[in-house]
Amino acid sequence: MAQAALSAAGLHFDELNKLRVLDPEAAQQTAQLREECGAFLDKIAEFQKIVGSLIELVDQLAKAAESEKMKAIGARNLLKSIAKQREAQEQQLQALIAEKKMQLERYQIEYETLCKIEADQNEFIDQFIFQK
């Protein structure tokens, strides 16, 4: 009965017969909740560590992918540049070929002209020699 009167007043005895303000069952639940919270906090810390390492790994992969992307863009631009240089070089060579063909034509005409002049001069020389 004394225990009931103390309980009504909000005082309780625990398993060691110490006087407590809190109900022993509530105290046990509170201790259990404290342990569960501690375990939860440990799991959260471990989760944060795992997520942090995952984020680092993803950042490294993103940097590597970006680097490879830049290399590929550089290689593509270089290839385009080389193709344009070859086109320009081909055009220059085509122009040079056309110029050389025109020069060959001029030389052929000049050669034919010189051959006619030589033939005329030889004919003149022959006529001059026969007249003497």
Automatic annotation (TrEMBL):
Lineage top rank: taxon: Eukaryota
Gene Ontology terms describing biological process: cardiac muscle cell differentiation; centrosome localization; cilium assembly; cochlea development; establishment of epithelial cell apical/basal polarity; establishment of planar polarity; inner ear receptor cell stereocilium organization; intraciliary transport
Coiled coil stretches, renumbered: 79-110
Signal peptide from the UniProt entry: none
Recorded GO MF terms: opsin binding; small GTPase binding
Pfam families, per database record: IFT20
Name of the protein this chain belongs to: Intraflagellar transport 20
Encoding gene (name): IFT20
